[in-house]
From TrEMBL:
One of its GO terms (molecular function) is hydroxyisourate hydrolase activity. It catalyses: 5-hydroxyisourate + H2O = 5-hydroxy-2-oxo-4-ureido-2,5-dihydro-1H-imidazole-5-carboxylate + H(+). It comes from Ornithorhynchus anatinus (Duckbill platypus). SMART domains: TR_THY. This is 5-hydroxyisourate hydrolase. Belongs to the transthyretin family. 5-hydroxyisourate hydrolase subfamily. The gene is LOC100079688.
Length: 118
């Protein structure tokens, strides 16, 4: 389970195996309006349930543009498979910092799906 105070959560499922994607590297960044550069906020790995608890605290989440970078190529290499996509970037906009945001990623070696979850 994600910490209660975490306003941003993600869950990565390996749809090829039907299991959570454990040990997948991800990086969370925010686009700085002043210079249009990405600032990395957090680097983490998915746990046994395919989640990264505590990506941001409530005070860190501000309106703006964010990016979740998932290192899918390394994950598939660890699994002994090749992948068409070396990484997945999910870029999204936060307009209301009081709402919880959930960004799931459904992953296979040759496709991925993401959506705004609840």
């Amino acid at each position: 389970m994600e910490p209660v105070g975490s306003p941003l959560t993600t869950h990565v499922l390996d749809t090829a195996s039907g299991l959570p994607a454990q040990g997948l590297l991800l990086r969370l960044s925010r686009l700085e309006n002043s210079n249009q550069q990405w600032t990395e906020l957090r680097k983490s790995y998915t746990n046994a349930d395919g989640r990264c608890p505590g990506l941001l605290t409530s005070s860190q989440l501000k309106p703006g543009t964010y990016k979740l970078f998932f290192d899918t190529g390394s994950y598939w290499n660890q699994m002994g498979q090749t992948s068409f996509y070396p990484y997945v970037e999910v870029i999204f906009t936060v307009t209301n910092e009081t709402k919880k945001l959930h960004v799931p990623l459904l992953l296979s070696p040759f496709s991925y799906t993401t959506y705004r979850g609840s």
